[in-house]
Amino acid sequence: MAAAKPFIFVCGADDFLVNRAGKARFEELALEVTDEFSREVLSGFAGNVGEVETAINRFRESVQTVSMFGGKRLVWFKDVNFLADTVTGRAESTLKLVEDLKELLETIDPEQVTVLITATPVDRRRAFPKWCEKTADFLLVGGDGDSAAEALAGVVLAEARELGVNFGEGALQLLLAKVGANTRLLIEETHKLATYAGEGKPIEEAFVAELTPNVAEGDFFEAAEAFFSGDLKWTLAALHRHFFTGGDARPIISALQNRNRILLQVRALIDAGDVRLGPRGLDGMPKAQAAYGKHFVGATEKSSYNLFSQNAWYVGKLASTGKLPTLRRLIDNQQEFIVAFGDIVKRSDEQEEVLRDMAVRCLSA
């Protein structure tokens, strides 16, 4: 029988997933340590080197404390953040303290004390995390690097299975596009959608479109959907509903500009033959990014100015909604948005009229 690992180390890039996994492991271990006075939870969160030292000293005192009744102790060192590639994490004093922590962990007797450490984020290039991976009962939660998107999808699918539901065609991709890399909200939305769908029923794409707020992109306004479908009647009705509830014109113009910028880039690539619209969305994006991504130097954040920073499925969905306008029409749209913004500044009490006139000019051409 293999010897017990000296401690448990759970880490990952997503604090919600790491904390959830740590809590589940702690509750499991607590079943073996029934004396609540023998269980201790310590914070490893530190904003500077001094706080790192304080946290490690508290941890040292805890693991070296003998149980009052002679049984095993359980110590959870949670929210450790000084193993990251940050100013605090890179400091020489911190690195020395981490080396002290390693020496302390090497002395732990798992028969006397069970130690659980949860850390996020972690610079896995460093010696300490590598040592933990070899020495501890090690768990990397959620993946990292290029697998982050797949990891998020895996988390959502696992949550759906626990709830007894699955996702219909396009529903999971739309959920990821609308929410983005917010694990907590993805799980909450999955619970909401599962309740709406009903046990054993699939979560349909239409449910996600109707019930899930657009946190990631910020442009799922009905007016934007209607405008780019080319339906003038729907657009005017959506604008009326927006202003009837006290809405402002500026978020609508922002939504239209963001969508239009993305479609301008898509149309240019399609006209150049670099990508094409297929049954599953936009085909050829990786090849196009390899050819043109160099022109977006430094633009790594998600932005409508950089097509390649967008969710590929989402881009294909936008481009295939209705008829994709011509490049000339998209350029004219952008000019119309600028004119409308100027008119709103001049006629702030006639915002709906300004946007209605703009929509008529764009969609009647």
From TrEMBL:
Domain DNA polymerase III delta N-terminal stretches: 53-131
Gene Ontology terms describing biological process: DNA-templated DNA replication
Keywords (A to Z) from UniProt: DNA replication, DNA-directed DNA polymerase, Nucleotidyltransferase, Transferase
Signal peptide: none
An annotated Gene Ontology molecular function: DNA-directed DNA polymerase activity
Keyword Transferase: yes
Cellular component, GO, one term: DNA polymerase III complex
InterPro entries: DNA_pol3_delta_N (IPR010372), DNA_polIII_delta (IPR005790), P-loop_NTPase (IPR027417)
NCBIfam families: holA
PANTHER family per UniProt: DNA POLYMERASE III SUBUNIT DELTA
Name of the protein: DNA polymerase III subunit delta
Species for this entry: Nibricoccus aquaticus
Gene: holA
